């Protein structure tokens, strides 16, 4: 059986008892970065061996892990933070398991965009989750398409690209679209910036340093 186990996006108290129980019982844990997950899991009394499973080896390791599952092993996937498969590795192995008739259990738990969305002040009953935009090819076209959606749009962005991304959003969505930019969800320095795209961009551009991982929620086209 394959388990998808969310891990905290910031506050480590968000790790659920069920997640800990599952990770203590499985035969192997596929981790996005064993250097990140290893010490944390050991602190929880989780002793299962770890296997690196990240974007650079996902295609290669999917077959290896699938063979272990076919042999009767119970495996879990964890990422550095959040839910496997959401802007993180996991999809390829889940698909392979479904095609092979291997049971997949996804545990509910932490993900950055849900708390950012519901605290954004924007409608959350319908939304489009984009995650990270393409780095180059198709980026402008994708932003133009997103700007026409009638529902709230949710994006992820890294700190070193944030201001440039907001400039691109301003060009595509217009300066007056309402938005909320949230950083460091559930961490000590969690912050939310609400206003028009221009207001948020100007405010963040004035900061001495941009840090943390960011979630941006943008109002739909009305």
Protein described:
There is one protein chain. The protein is α/β, with parallel strands linked by helices and 222 residues long. The model has no long low-confidence stretch (mean pLDDT 96).
Note the topology.
Blueprint: E1 2-4, H1 17-25, E2 28-31, H2 34-43, E3 50-52, H3 58-70, E4 75-78, H4 91-100, E5 104-106, H5 113-118, E6 127-132, H6 139-147, E7 152-157, H7 162-173, E8 178-183, E9 191-196, H8 197-205, E10 214-218
Parallel strand pairs: 1-4, 1-5, 2-3, 2-4, 6-7
Antiparallel strand pairs: 7-10, 8-9, 8-10
Helix pairs in contact: 3-4, 6-7, 7-8
What is the compact description of this entry?
This protein has 222 residues and is an alpha/beta fold.
Structure keywords:
35% helix, elongated, alpha/beta, five-stranded parallel beta sheet, Methyltransferase, Cobalt-precorrin-4 Transmethylase, Domain 2, 8 helices, Cobalt-precorrin-4 Transmethylase, domain 1, 222 residues, five-stranded mixed beta sheet, 10 strands
Distance between the termini: 45 Å
Radius of gyration, taken over Cα atoms and rounded to an integer in Å: 19 Å
Principal-axis shape equals elongated
**Which whole number gives the mean pLDDT?**
96
Q: Give helix % range.
A: 25-40%
Largest sheet: 5 strands, parallel
Q: Could you please say which CATH topology of the largest domain applies here? A: Methyltransferase, Cobalt-precorrin-4 Transmethylase, Domain 2
Low-confidence stretches: none
> What is the tally of beta strands?
10
Q: What is the top-level CATH class of the largest domain?
A: Alpha Beta
CATH superfamily of the largest domain: Tetrapyrrole methylase, C-terminal domain
Number of helical elements: 8
Derived from helix and strand composition plus strand pairing, the structural class reads alpha/beta
CATH architecture of the largest domain: 2-Layer Sandwich
Strand order of the largest sheet: 3-2-4-1-5
Instruction: Tell me the fraction of residues in β-strands, as a range.
Output: 15-25%
User: N-to-C SSE series?
Assistant: EHEHEHEHEHEHEHEEHE
Number of domains: 2
């Amino acid at each position: 059986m394959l388990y998808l186990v969310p891990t905290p996006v910031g506050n480590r108290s968000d790790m659920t008892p069920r997640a800990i129980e599952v990770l203590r019982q499985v035969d192997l844990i596929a981790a996005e970065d064993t250097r990140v997950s290893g010490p944390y899991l050991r602190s929880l009394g989780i002793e299962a061996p770890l296997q690196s499973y990240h974007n650079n080896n996902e295609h290669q390791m999917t077959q290896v892990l699938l063979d272990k599952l076919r042999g009767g092993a119970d495996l879990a996937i964890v990422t550095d933070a959040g839910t496997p498969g959401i802007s993180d590795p996991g999809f390829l192995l889940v698909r392979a398991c479904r095609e092979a008739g291997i049971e997949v259990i996804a545990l509910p738990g932490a993900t950055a965009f849900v708390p950012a969305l519901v605290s954004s002040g924007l409608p959350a009953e319908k939304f489009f989750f984009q995650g990270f935009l393409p780095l180059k090819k198709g980026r402008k076209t994708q932003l133009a398409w997103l700007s026409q959606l009638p529902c709230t749009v949710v994006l992820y962005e890294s700190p070193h690209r944030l201001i440039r991304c907001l400039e691109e959003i301003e060009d595509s969505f217009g300066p007056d679209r309402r938005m909320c930019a949230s950083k460091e969800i559930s961490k000590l320095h969690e912050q939310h910036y609400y206003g028009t795209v221009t207001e948020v961009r100007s405010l963040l551009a004035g900061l001495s340093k941009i840090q943390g991982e960011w979630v941006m929620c943008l109002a739909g086209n009305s």
